[in-house]
Amino acid sequence: MNEATDNIIVFDKVNKWYGNNFHVLRDINLNVRRGERIVVCGPSGSGKSTLIRCINRLEEHQEGHLIVDGTELTDDVKAIDKIRKEVGMVFQQFNLFPHLTVLENLTLSPMYVGKMPKKEAEEKAMTQLKRVRIAEQAGKYPLQLSGGQQQRVAIARALCLTPKIMLFDEPTSALDPEMIKEVLDVMVEMANQGITMICVTHEMGFAKAVADRVIFMDQGQIVEQNTPHEFFNNPQTDRSKDFLSKILGH
Amino acid sequence: MSVAPRTPPAKRDWSWRSQAFRGLLYQIIAVVIIGGVAWWLATNTAENMRVRGIKSGFDFLTQPAGFDIGESLSKFDSNDPYWKAFLIGVSNTLRVAILGIILTTILGTLIGVGRFSRNGLVRGLCQAYVELFRNVPVLLQLLMWYLLFTEFLPDVTEAKRIGDIYLSKGGITFPKPIWETGHLFGVAGLLAGCVVAWFYRRWARSKFEATGQVRSMFWVPVAIVFALGVLGWLVGGAPSQFAVPAKGEFAVEGGGALTPEFMAVLLGLTLYTAAFVAEVVRSGISSVARGQSEAAQALGLSKGQEMQQVLLPQALRVIIPPMTNQFLNLTKNSSLAVAIGYPDVVSISNTALNQTGRAVECIALIMLVYLTTSLLTSFFMNWYNAKSAIKER
Question: What is the CATH number of the domain that holds B140?
Answer without folding.
Answer: 1.10.3720.10
